[in-house]
Amino acid sequence: MKYMVMIYDNAQTRERFFGEEGAELMAEVNAIMKELTDSGELIGGEALADPSNTRTIRPVDGVPAITDGPLAEAKEHFGGYLLLECETIERAAEIARRWPSSRFTPLEVRPVMSADGAEM
Amino acid sequence: MSPSPAHPDAGAARVEALLRELAPRTLGALTRRHGQFDACEDAVQEALLAAALQWPQDGVPADPQAWLLTVAGRRLVDGWRSESARRAREESAAARAVPDAHVAPGADVEAAAPAPEEDDTLALLFLCCHPALSPPSQLALTLRAVGGLTTAQIASAFLVPEATMAQRISRAKARIRDAGTTFALPPAGDRATRLGVVLHVLYLMFNEGYVATAGDTLARVELTREAIRLTRLLRAQLPGDGEVQGLLALMLLTDARRPARVDARGELVPLAEQDRGRWDAGEIAEGVALVGDALARAPLGPYQLQAAIAALHAEAPSADATDWRQIVALYRLLERVAGTNPMVKLNEAVAVAMVDGPRAGLVLLDGLAGGLAESHRLDAVRAHLLERDGDLAGARDAYRAAARRTTSLPERRYLERRAAALPGGDGEA
Hints:
The complex is a heterodimer. Helix content of chain A is about 30%, strand content about 35%. By secondary structure, chain A is of the alpha+beta class. Chain B is mainly alpha-helical. The interface between A and B is medium-sized, with 21 and 37 residues.
């Protein structure tokens, strides 16, 4: 089953990762990425640029309109993801729990929908 | 293969079918001689790729198996040479000579002595379905080492990137090496348990392909075909085993329904509404004969019982005209043979509802909450039974609960459609 680990962050988390203690945190990230690559569980993953670079598209009276900036002032923004193939959601959640940003900001794990279907 | 010098008209598809047949024999012969399953597997895969490129153009060699063994043997020796050369550079200049232990006897000489290939294929299946591996790894390795599929083909069948699949396979091989496994049949005491794992892997392989509905269907349907082919191969090695035969029957009887389980728009069609005229009569006839024969002469087992249930469905002209009483009895027997299993209980509840009415089925469902890994199936069955019982509001809630829980797009569409179709709801259908 495929799962997406959605990584949320805020300005403080980003500063940590890109600041003084960032090297240690990135070493943790790299170690987990290597482990997931070796285990054949990693399908993909990306980090997103700072939320200030966002364009938001939202319906205004039923017409989609584009504005600068993220969706709303939020405590956390969607900052990146991992796409995994794991045997259980417990395994995927355990990987997310070990992701170093989990000590500062939340992550979510959700199954990816598939085109497979069983007879009902 | 005929001993004629070459078949210049050999199409790529014919070559591929031939290569898949020869893959386990070649790998078996090579591994039995040299040990080192992981290195041999790489060498054979390279030989298969070379043949897939060369044979369609130049024709199939007179003795294709010998050709593969020769090429794979050379690759193996080349691998050892470059490996020892690397070590020599790293360690010392004195280690420049290739150590005797690493020099394989000439591959051409070996090819002259054909192997008892039946035993090899069986041993390979046991090796790839080693209990130290996770089911996804067992599946991938079996497809590559026994099935002769390339990593790219396996990756596209499982809808993951090739790099992910390559990693899974090489890790599986490393695990087998680390477990110190020798290339031989498991000891007699372990044989039954290990065969159980092999059958389960083949069953999973079949199911992975069977549930495909759209998109990359072609690559995934390949998995059902490959599972059936490998189970036939296994049956040829163990002709007396009732469970191997039962599994083959179950696959054929299930696969027979494939043309009818999805409609022209790619939507799921439930068993009761399938156009039975589109079921594959040839597969049904073969499956029914196989399961009948197994039940008559072999000790009873779970695959035979599931095949017997599939046979009752396959032979019924409609859902209503199905021998549900017999199906209930078979599910109860299945529980006695294989132990309590919530999926079996769920299916039994469906059958009980057909015999004694929806309320009797609903009572059985009450004991199941929480036991099912795929909890949306419980809600879906409850919804169907509530609908038949006339509790439309309850049915709608249960369909919607199932729709929210499933991770399958076609299942979600089917369940939403059923909910919307109920009279008095907010749906139009």
